[in-house]
Design a protein that fits this description.
Layout lengths: L8 H28 L3 H4 L16 H7 L8 H7 L12
Length: about 90
């Protein structure tokens, strides 16, 4: 017959500390991802954490990051997808 081990106060406190430490460690990543979906005017004016409830998400920052002004990919993105020897050649002006 299998016995069920009861949780003591020590086990409960250990798990509470682990969960709090995990939240503490992962919150900056959550904040960075949520901030990347905010429009530039909202980033510094309204502190908000809940997507769709406190602000309307936008892809404005992502478009600016991944599309250059002339429609080509930025140099740092083409760096990862090029042949090894071509990476040594500097990008155009």
């Amino acid at each position: 017959m299998a016995t069920i081990k009861k949780w003591g106060l020590g086990n409960t406190l250990v798990w509470i500390v682990i969960i709090l430490a995990l939240c503490w460690a992962l919150f900056p990543f959550y904040w960075a991802i949520i901030t990347s979906f905010k429009s530039p005017g909202v980033i510094l004016t309204k502190p908000s954490l809940v997507l769709f409830l406190q602000f309307k998400p936008t892809l404005f920052n992502w478009r600016n990051e991944y599309i250059a002004r002339d429609g080509r990919l930025p140099a740092y993105l083409s760096f990862f997808s090029c042949k090894p020897l071509n990476c040594l050649i500097p990008a155009g002006p």
